[in-house]
Amino acid sequence: MGILDDAQASAFEAHLAGCARCSAHLDEFAGMEPMLAMLAEAPTAVPGARPVPRVPEPPAPKVLGGLMDEVAHRRHRRTKRSRYLVAAAAALIIGGPVAAVAVTGGDEGGGRPAATGEPHPTSPAEDSFFEHLPEKVSGTDPTTRVGATIGMEKKAWGTHTVLELKNVKGPQKCVLVAVSKTGEEEVVTSWSVPKWGYGIEGSSHASAKAPLYVHGGAAMSREDIARFEVRTFDGERLVEIGA
């Protein structure tokens, strides 16, 4: 953000290397990159004028305070949502599978309830996060024609992933599995594919044209992962991605 000078940045990095609490706080700011990019966007260029390099400037205190408030709001909302999930799980355990409980982001957009129809397409923030991941591997299955790219970054707890999935049709439920070099398997994340699918070129359905982006995490370290597999809940392998 341009707030720290070279000496301060070095001191910050040295502290971060040994402080798990600050590392966790830094992870919370990771999703703010798209907002920061918008704030740093260069002004419209004048035709015929020579481009002027943009020098990063520290954000004004008002802007910085707003960013801090946004992170605090997200943390509060995440805690509240977790309580709803625990309550829903307890109800299902006690009462059995009597009713389906849907938990959404809640009151976003002026207190209006979240829509229950077709899901919204992937947000620009998710796309941006995927683009900034340091390592990506891709694969396309010759039979199913499903294509996948997985972005990865090392974490103290394992490996953070974002999956980009294309040319997958529904309705079906899928799972991303990480396979270690010794054959150990670990579920990274799972999702549902609507009947119109994701990342399908030429589709008449607007939501089907965009790829699916889904976040996940594996306890395996990056060095231990040999490959990823996208499978259906029925066990069919849709695509394998070498890591």
TrEMBL record:
The chain crosses the membrane at residues 84-103. Residues 104-146 are annotated as: Disordered. Keywords: Membrane, Transcription, Transcription regulation, Transmembrane, Transmembrane helix. The keyword Hydrolase does not apply. It holds the Pfam family zf-HC2. Coiled coil: none annotated. Residues 2-22 form the Putative zinc-finger domain. The keyword Transmembrane helix applies. This is Zf-HC2 domain-containing protein. It comes from Streptomyces rhizosphaericola.
